[in-house]
Structures are given as structure tokens and as C-alpha cells.
Design a protein that fits this description.
By secondary structure, this protein is mostly helical. Helix content is 54%, strand content 6%. The chain is globular.
Length: 281
């Protein structure tokens, strides 16, 4: 009987392992049907994500040497454009957790960094470098769609659960973490390594979100094309993981073709130029 139990346990384990390693099935229940990722485990509920996000945000604001946040009161035009673009995507009707997350957006002043990242709870941070690097609002919307997808699908919480463990994250949520533990998480935010599958999900969802807006739905592909044309030397952390930029262009365009959405450039350049000009020189 014991031997049979062992055989059953081993067989079950192999089945679960095959299930865990699979990343090719489609999640048809998502707001935007996309690739499903296994394992896809988070440490807590969305309400806990919000607490964790607020704690991390407070630490980011308290670390201006690493994260020089532009004051909203001094740069109202820049924040007006950023929030307008974010709201256009949020109101697409495609975001599953639209009414559950904070959706706070902040600008980090560093022109040398092509990056954007999000924390659990929907706090999104965008560097001035990537805003200035892009040529039009549709391409920037593609990048924002990618980050909004990471937030919507709770990729930050899932990745942090794997990287730091449940105990450490719950200590932060419960207010029991040391300052060093919180600082450790904050220091690694801009280089948080999502899995290949999470990056694919974020790319696909970016297309899906934008498909229900006035933006061209494959805006993120244009970003990768510009990176590739430059030799990839400035690929940002949040998009430098697998798959490579050329493959991601193909994947994004394939998703756009599947959805039959607009891939032309309908939006005027003037608004995005005003956005860029409103940033510090």
C-alpha cells in the first residue's frame, strides 16, 4: 500500500511538473485572452498588494538619490499628459482589475534611463529618458500598456513572491519588516526580472488594451523596432529580458493581426511634443 502511495505521489508530481512548466495555453477568461503562465503564484490578496505598494511607494519617495520623482505641483502639464494617456488605456474596458488598483503614476527624472516599472497595487513609474526617447504618443501608449498589464495581471506581486518569499512580503504588509528589507526590495524594482511568460502576457495585453482606444494597438512594437535599429545598446531593464526585441516585435504584430486592430498612426504628434517639452531639460 505504501509503495502504491509512493507511485501515485510520483506520478502526480510529474503531472504537476508538466503543468507548471507549460506556458503555451491560452487564458480565455482574461479580459484580453493571452498566454497562461505556470506557476503563477502570488503571496496574498489584491488588498494586500495595495498595502505593499503604498509601503514601497513611500520608500521610493524617501529615496530621491535613486528615484528623483518630479514634483507634481512643479510639472502639472507633464503629469496631465501622463494621466491622460494612462486614463485612455484604463478606460479601454479591457482591464480586469481597473477598479481595484491604485493606478498612481509618477515621473522619475533621469534622461539616461529608458525604463518604466510598476509595483504591486498599480503604482507605475516612468523615467523621463523613455518619454523623450519615443517619437509619438502611440508608441509611448504601447509602453504604458505593457506596464499597466504587469499591474493588472499582478506580475510584480507574483515575481516578488518568488524572489523574496512570502514571509518577507507579509512582514512588509503587516508593518513588521525592517527598513533594510524594504530598502532591498526598492533597490531592485527597476530591474525586477519578470519571466518570459509574464513579458509575453504584458506585450499581448498591451495590444489588447490599445485595441479599444484611438491608439495604434501595436505601439510597443515600434519601441522595439527603434531599439533594434539602434543596435539594442539601450534596451531598458523592463524589456531587456527574453524574448529578444525582434521576436517581441513579431509577437506583438501577430497579436494585432489576430485582433484585427488598428496599426496605423492616428494621433497627432503635437500633444506628445508638448508632453516632452514640459519635462525638465
Amino acid at each position: 500500500m505504501k509503495r502504491n502511495s509512493i507511485k501515485i505521489a510520483v506520478s502526480t508530481g510529474l503531472v504537476l511538473l508538466a503543468f507548471v512548466l507549460s506556458c503555451s495555453k491560452k487564458n480565455e477568461n482574461a479580459a484580453v485572452p493571452t498566454t497562461s503562465c505556470f506557476p503563477d503564484i502570488t503571496f496574498s490578496s489584491i488588498s494586500d498588494d495595495l498595502i505593499l505598494g503604498r509601503q514601497i511607494d513611500s520608500q521610493i519617495v524617501a529615496t530621491p538619490s535613486e528615484y528623483p520623482i518630479l514634483p507634481r505641483a512643479q510639472y502639472p502639464v507633464a503629469y496631465s499628459h501622463l494621466e491622460r494617456i494612462t486614463n485612455n488605456i484604463k478606460n479601454s474596458g479591457k482591464i480586469g482589475n481597473k477598479d481595484k488598483l491604485s493606478w498612481e503614476v509618477k515621473i522619475i527624472h533621469n534622461d539616461s534611463v529608458l525604463n518604466a516599472f510598476c509595483t504591486p497595487g498599480g503604482y507605475i513609474y516612468v523615467y523621463t529618458g523613455i518619454i523623450k526617447y519615443l517619437d509619438n504618443e502611440d508608441d509611448f501608449a504601447g509602453v504604458m500598456g505593457h506596464e499597466i498589464a504587469h499591474a493588472d495581471l499582478r506580475h510584480s506581486a507574483k515575481t516578488m513572491t518568488q524572489q523574496y518569499g512570502i514571509s518577507m512580503l507579509m512582514n512588509i504588509v503587516l508593518g513588521k519588516a525592517s527598513q533594510g528589507q524594504l530598502a532591498q526590495i526598492v533597490a531592485g524594482l527597476s530591474s525586477l526580472k519578470y519571466s518570459r511568460c509574464h513579458e509575453t502576457q504584458a506585450d499581448e495585453n498591451s495590444v489588447g488594451y490599445l485595441s479599444a482606444t484611438s491608439y495604434k494597438c501595436n505601439g510597443a512594437a515600434s519601441f522595439f523596432e527603434k531599439i533594434s535599429a539602434a543596435g539594442g545598446s539601450r534596451t531598458p531593464e523592463f524589456m531587456s529580458t527574453h524574448p529578444n526585441p525582434d521576436n517581441r516585435v513579431a509577437n506583438i504584430n501577430a497579436k494585432a493581426k489576430e485582433l484585427g486592430c488598428n496599426t496605423t498612426l492616428p494621433n497627432p504628434i503635437s500633444q506628445y511634443t508638448e508632453f516632452k517639452n514640459s519635462l525638465p531639460k
